C-alpha cells in the first residue's frame, strides 16, 4: 500500500468513473439533472407534479429538450414548461461549470455512499435550488440505485475480452451502528483489445484480505471477465493470491507507482531525486536482462541515509520489466501503474454511511485491516505523505 495521505473519496471516484466509464457517469448525471429540474419546477409551481394542493400557483406543461455539453459527453436535459410564465434553470445553464462539477461530485458520492436527504439538501443549497422533499429524494434514490445496480451487475464479456486489468483498494471511513470504522473499496479497471478502458467492478469490504479480494475477483469472473493476460497491482499478498486463483492464465506485475512510494517511504526527502533517477535508469532499459543488471548495480551502490530493507532489495523482475509471456501492446499504452494514482490512500474525509451504500457488501473476513496503521502527526505529516505520493506518481 502507498503511504497514507488525505484524499477526497467522492472526487477520486468521480474522476475514475468519468475516465473509465463515461457512459455510466453520463447516464447518472442526466438522471440527477432532470430530477433536480423537476424538483425545482415543482417548487416554482408551489406543489409537486400531479398533486393537489391549496398552495399551488402554477402547473406543468410538458418539457423542452436541450443538449448540455459536459466533461463526460452531451446530456439530454428535459427542461419543464409551465402553463403560465416560463421556467429557466439559471443555476444550471448560466453557472454551467460550477453546477457540473458539483453534480458530478454528488453523483460519485451517491454511488459510493448512497443517496440521503441531508446529502441532497446540501447539494441543492450549493446550486441555489429550494430544498427537496423526502418523496423527491426517494424517487431520485430509486432511479440512481437502479442504474448503479445495472452497472455493477452487467455482463463483462460483451465489452471484453479485457487484456489488461489493474486492481487497487481505497481505504475510507464509514459510519456503522453509530460508530466510525474503516472500510475499503475494492476497484478493478480493465483495458480491452481496442484500448477502451472502463471500471469492471467496485465493492466495499471490511478490510483488504485474501478473502475479500477472492470474493471480488470471483464476481468479476462470474460476470464474464476473461482473456486477461496481465494484471497490475501493489504487492498485497492476499491480492496476488486471489489473482492467481481466479485468473490462472494471467501474469501479475507490480505497480511502479506503489513500488516507488515504498522506496521513498524508507528514504529521507533529500534522497527522493536520487531514488527517482535510479528507478528511471532501471525502467528505461530495453531488455529484461539489462533491467536486472541495472537494478543489481543500482541496489548495490551505497546510499547514505537510505537504509536497505526488504522493499528496496526486492527482485525487480515483476516491477521494472514485463514478465515472461506478458503482452506488450493492447491498442493503447496501458502502463504499469494502477489508475487513478493514489487510489490506495487512506482518507481523512468525513465518514460515509455504510448502510446506505449501494456498493456495500461487507466481507466476512476480519474487520481489522491487514496492513499496519501508520500514525500521522497532523497537517505536516499529511503534507509529507502527499508529496511522497505525488513524487511517486510522476515516475512512470
TrEMBL record:
Residues 347-371, 380-396 have a biased composition (Low complexity). It comes from the Bacteria. GO terms for molecular function: DNA binding; transposase activity. It holds the Pfam family Transposase_mut. Keywords: DNA recombination, DNA-binding, Transposable element, Transposition. Residues 295-346 have a biased composition (Polar residues). GO terms for biological process: DNA transposition. Residues 295-396 are annotated as: Disordered. The keyword Cell wall biogenesis/degradation does not apply. InterPro entries: Transposase_mutator. Belongs to the transposase mutator family. Required for the transposition of the insertion element. This is Mutator family transposase. It comes from Gordonia westfalica.
Amino acid at each position: 500500500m502507498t503511504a497514507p495521505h488525505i484524499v477526497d473519496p467522492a472526487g477520486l471516484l468521480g474522476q475514475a468513473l468519468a475516465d473509465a466509464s463515461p457512459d455510466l457517469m453520463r447516464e447518472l448525471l442526466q438522471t440527477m439533472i432532470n430530477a433536480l429540474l423537476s424538483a425545482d419546477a415543482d417548487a416554482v409551481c408551489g406543489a409537486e407534479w400531479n398533486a393537489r394542493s391549496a398552495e399551488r400557483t402554477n402547473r406543468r406543461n410538458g418539457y423542452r429538450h436541450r443538449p448540455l455539453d459536459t466533461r463526460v459527453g452531451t446530456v439530454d436535459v428535459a427542461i419543464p414548461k409551465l402553463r403560465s410564465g416560463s421556467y429557466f434553470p439559471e443555476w444550471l445553464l448560466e453557472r454551467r461549470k460550477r453546477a457540473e462539477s458539483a453534480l458530478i461530485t454528488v453523483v460519485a458520492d451517491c454511488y459510493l455512499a448512497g443517496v440521503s436527504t441531508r446529502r441532497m439538501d446540501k447539494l441543492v443549497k450549493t446550486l441555489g435550488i429550494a430544498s427537496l422533499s423526502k418523496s423527491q429524494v426517494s424517487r431520485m434514490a430509486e432511479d440512481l440505485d437502479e442504474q448503479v445496480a445495472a452497472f455493477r451487475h452487467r455482463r463483462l464479456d460483451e465489452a471484453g475480452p479485457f487484456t489488461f486489468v489493474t486492481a487497487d483498494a481505497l481505504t475510507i471511513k464509514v459510519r456503522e451502528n453509530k460508530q466510525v470504522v474503516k472500510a475499503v473499496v475494492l476497484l478493478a479497471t480493465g483495458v480491452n483489445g481496442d484500448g477502451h478502458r472502463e471500471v469492471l467492478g467496485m465493492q466495499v469490504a471490511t478490510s483488504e484480505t485474501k478473502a475479500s479480494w477472492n470474493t471480488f475477483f470471483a464476481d468479476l469472473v462470474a460476470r464474464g471477465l476473461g482473456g486477461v493476460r496481465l494484471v497490475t497491482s501493489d504487492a498485497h499478498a492476499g491480492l496476488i493470491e486471489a489473482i492467481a486463483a481466479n485468473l490462472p492464465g494471467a501474469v501479475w506485475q507490480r505497480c511502479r507507482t506503489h513500488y516507488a512510494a515504498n522506496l521513498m517511504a524508507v528514504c529521507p526527502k533529500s534522497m527522493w531525486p536520487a531514488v527517482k533517477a535510479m528507478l528511471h535508469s532501471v525502467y528505461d532499459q530495453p531488455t529484461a536482462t539489462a533491467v536486472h543488471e541495472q537494478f543489481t548495480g543500482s541496489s548495490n551502490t551505497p546510499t547514505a541515509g537510505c537504509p536497505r530493507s526488504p522493499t528496496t532489495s526486492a527482485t525487480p523482475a515483476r516491477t521494472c520489466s514485463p514478465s515472461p509471456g506478458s503482452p506488450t501492446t493492447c491498442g493503447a499504452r496501458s502502463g504499469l501503474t494502477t489508475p487513478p494514482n493514489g487510489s490506495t490512500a487512506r482518507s481523512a474525509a468525513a465518514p460515509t454511511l455504510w448502510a446506505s451504500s449501494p456498493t456495500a457488501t461487507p466481507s466476512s473476513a476480519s474487520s481489522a485491516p491487514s496492513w499496519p496503521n501508520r500514525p500521522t502527526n497532523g497537517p505536516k505529516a499529511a503534507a509529507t505523505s502527499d508529496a511522497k505520493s505525488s513524487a511517486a506518481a510522476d515516475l512512470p
